[in-house]
Amino acid sequence: MDVNHLRAQFPALAQTLGDYPLCYLDTAATSQKPKQVLDAINHYYQQDNANVHRAAHQLSSRATVNYEAVRDDVRDFINAGQREEIIFTHGTTEGINMVAHGLTAQIDPGATILVDTAAHHANLVPWQMLALRTGATVVPIPLDSHCRIDQQAYAQLLQQHPAIVALSHVSNALGTVNPVTQMAAQAKAVGAITVIDGAQAIAHLTVDVQAIDCDFYLFSGHKMYGPTGVGILYGKYAQLDRLTPLLTGGEMIKSVTFEATEFNILPNRLEAGTPPISGVIGLGAAIKFINQLDKAATVKRENELLTYLQQRLLALGDITLYGAHDDNIGAVAFNLADEHHQDVGILLDQQGIAVRCGHHCAMPLMQSLNIKGCCRASIGVYTNVEDIDRFIDGLISVKELLL
């Protein structure tokens, strides 16, 4: 599909900010939404607005059918073994918290929980809280000099027979791709439960959870051209069925008396209360949008764009790249000389250029890099060469002003 035709499907990209057309390079934080996603959400609210599962009337029936159809779409999208292994959440963060809470009874005092140093806070703090509840210890998996997970150090840490190994499929801050299939197999060999944060991978890679063979895999709709407030917790059925529910009430209940409560079966057992129905409907539309793309061509073009972005940054001079490798996807992290990243981001914004600046919810990673934060430019299917050129031109003017 021609990139200009593709961009035309994203209404937000047509806006101007002051005197400048929007140059959106913050897709890793949240992607823009194509019209078919917006239309699907609008249609639900205008025609099918009702709660799912609980009513006999036609609106509820239509909403339920459409809602549950997305569960099948997600199962196919990530090649899960069965639809009951797909749990709708409000995002990756909630999903990881659900897993961490749900495993509490299974973790013994003194157990080890391994977390990669570049992990998003959402894949670190829930494990710290689990450790506080159980007496376990969270141990970071070090990075090597190229900001990759140190595989030798990882192999040594596995000798401690950790109870849980929590990994990022793709680094939120750096775009580094981790060999999660290999690492999950190593963890499984020592009896560890494996949890993969796939939030940054899902829009760029073909994810096959059965091939990865992890116990849990999580991602968010808003990173993959879908709405905010919806996400997916995938888990192997046996693992999901052992989780203690984080939230109780509503559809997750099979029967209730004042003496006792019996929980429902999966997937309802882990979906308490009114779910993010419109978000799920929008997520289904986002999956259809992604499936309509030529995947091989899209990956090739994104790789070429990212390489072009890295090359132009390096040619600019006074730029430090963090974790920039040939197999990075989606994002480039950088700093301009010794200038504060927020200053750079604000000056770019004044030219209509949107990038992310800060610690990217990865403060331990920033500490390991000996920096307080950095800028991150990230791309999506709608990003074109003109976006990269505008960004570089904007950065040149920032450099002339600050240096």
From TrEMBL:
Protein name per Swiss-Prot or TrEMBL: Cysteine desulfurase
Reactions listed under catalytic activity: (sulfur carrier)-H + L-cysteine = (sulfur carrier)-SH + L-alanine
Protein's job: Catalyzes the removal of elemental sulfur and selenium atoms from L-cysteine, L-cystine, L-selenocysteine, and L-selenocystine to produce L-alanine.
Pfam families in UniProt: Aminotran_5
MF-aspect GO terms: cysteine desulfurase activity; pyridoxal phosphate binding
UniProt cofactor(s): pyridoxal 5'-phosphate
Top EC class, one word: transferase
InterPro entries listed in its UniProt record: Aminotrans_V_dom, Aminotrans_V_PyrdxlP_BS, Cys_dSase_SufS, PyrdxlP-dep_Trfase, PyrdxlP-dep_Trfase_major, PyrdxlP-dep_Trfase_small
Domain Aminotransferase class V: from-to ranges: 24-391
EC number: 2.8.1.7
UniProt KW Lyase keyword: no
GO biological process, one term: cysteine metabolic process
Family per similarity comment: Belongs to the class-V pyridoxal-phosphate-dependent aminotransferase family. Csd subfamily.
Species annotation: Shewanella colwelliana
Gene3D superfamilies to which the protein is assigned, alphabetical: Aspartate Aminotransferase, domain 1, Type I PLP-dependent aspartate aminotransferase-like (Major domain)
Keyword line: Pyridoxal phosphate, Transferase
